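Sorry to interrupt, but I need a hand with the structure work. Leave the record below and I will have a look:
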Amino acid sequence: MRPSGRDISEMRPISIETGVTKHAEGSCLIRVGDTHVLCTASLEERVPPFLKNSGLGWVTAEYGMLPRATGSRMRREAAQGKQGGRTVEIQRLIGRSLRAGVDRVALGERQITVDCDVLQADGGTRCAAITGGWVALRLAVNALMKAGDVTSDPLVAPVAAVSCGIYAGQPVLDLDYAEDSRAGVDGNFVMLGGNRLIEVQMSAEGATYTRDQMGLLLDLAEKGVNELAAAQTAAVGG
């Protein structure tokens, strides 16, 4: 039995609320169970120096956790003078994942920065950030298209991510913290619409795993990502 009482292939409740900030070109608050992440997308009519005069756009991301997103207060990374290694790794993952779903030629020479701030953490924060980050990105691109600043849709397909792992010997979908902290195997699956893989992060936390077990986790991940993609589509109005 999972601590939450869920079936092994059952996601936590998903909700995505859009337009939650006044100034960002795209924004949403995504809730996956008790993990809540605020995602905003900000448009700039410039690109990093290495892309100047290339005709290519750029999508990048930043990630952070509020001090009381977890059970005990964390110091703000700004107060420590630098970002931690985990933060840097996650925001690079978010950026890579979102760019995989973007036609950078169609986007043109402009940059969209997606900020993902974890308000409350209960497992799967990077996955929720990627999923909500795409919604914020979609809304920002919609604004570009409405203004006539791009001639074709730069977004190829939805990008979403979900965690899967082996808990108490069973492959399970969408780990919360109680499972994640005790899972024998932990994995994050990032996918583009149509079940195309962008990135898989898997590690043997307490036990090794077989190729067959990885296949079962991938099947669960496809189910979860399809549910997330349906929630994304509903949130942005189709």
In short: The longest strand covers residues 35-44. The radius of gyration is 18 Å. The mean pLDDT is 96. The beta strands are 14-18, 26-32, 35-44, 58-65, 111-120, 159-167, 170-173, 185-192, 196-204.
